[in-house]
Amino acid sequence: MSLLPLFEYPHPILRQKAKPVETVDEELRRFLDDMLETMYADKGVGLAAPQVGVSKRVIVIDAHQHEEDESGDFRPGQPMYLVNPEIVWHSEETILFCEGCLSVPGQNADVERFQSVRVKYLDYDGNSQEIEASDYEAVVLQHEIDHLDGILYIDHLSRLKRDMLLKKLKKYRESHEK
Ligand code: NI
After folding, report:
1. pLDDT tens, residue by residue, 48-65
2. CA dist list (Å): 159 to 6, 100, 122, 147, 166
3. Which of 77, 1, 5, 94 is nearest to 47 (CA)?
4. Cβ proximity of 42 and 89 under 8 Å
5. How many A from CA of 8 to the centre of ligand 1?
6. pLDDT above 80 (res 72)
7. What is the pLDDT of residue 74?
8. CA of 14 to the centre of ligand 1 (A)
9. Does residue 37 have a pLDDT over 90?
10. Ligand 1 mean position to 27 CA, how many Å?
11. What percent of the chain has pLDDT over 90?
12. What is the per-residue DSSP string for 25-56?
């Protein structure tokens, strides 16, 4: 397994509509393994293929991991691989959740999402599956599936809030330059 490079805002690949996967084969499984390893290494709860420079409809999530006390390392909880994920139902109710993104480092903001969603996808073995998720897990799924359509969480903010966040991102990058 190997760690994959992260692509950050405003890289154009993050704005492309990703292509559906035709077959779940060994090569894709290796990529899924690398994505999960990269997600854990970067302390993410979800990762979409465009974020590692691959314009395919693939996401990995783990909304059930727990942070370890001392090392700060995440303990794997319930990793999930979703190929060609598609929201087939969502609740009317929405929730507000504070989101961040590995492609927009050091920032976060409240985003309104559907409280529950049902998602159809192919699993690691290429079998068709459906999951119904609520609250945090539903938020992570919506955030990652957005990435496959070239949408970032900052697109859900008001123009004013987005501009403020992008200013903070610029400062953050300046202060983290080596
Ligand atoms: Ni993200």
Report:
1. 999 999 999 999 999 988
2. 26, 17, 36, 19, 10
3. 5
4. no
5. 10
6. no
7. 66
8. 10
9. yes
10. 24
11. 88
12. -HHHHHHHHHHHHHHHHTT-SEEEGGGGT--B
CA distances from 148 to 74, 85, 107, 116, 120 (A): 25, 9, 21, 19, 14
Is residue 38 very low, low, confident or very high in pLDDT (cuts 50, 70, 90)? very high
Supply the residues annotated as catalytic.
144
* Strand partners of residue 80: 61
Token pair 């070239």: residue: 150
Q: Which amino acid is at 75?
A: R
pLDDT of residue 66: 74
- Per-residue model confidence as pLDDT tens digits over 136-170: 999 999 999 999 999 999 999 999 999 999 999 99
CA 92 to ligand 1 centroid distance, Å: 23
For residues 157 and 74, the answer to whether their CB atoms sit within 8 Å is: no
φ, ψ at 27 (rounded to 5°): -65, -40
CB 4 within 8 A of CB 52: yes
Global model pTM greater than 0.90:
yes
CB-facing half-sphere around the CA of 134: CA atoms within 13 A: 3
Grouping H, G, I as helix, E, B as strand and the rest as coil, residue 167 is helix
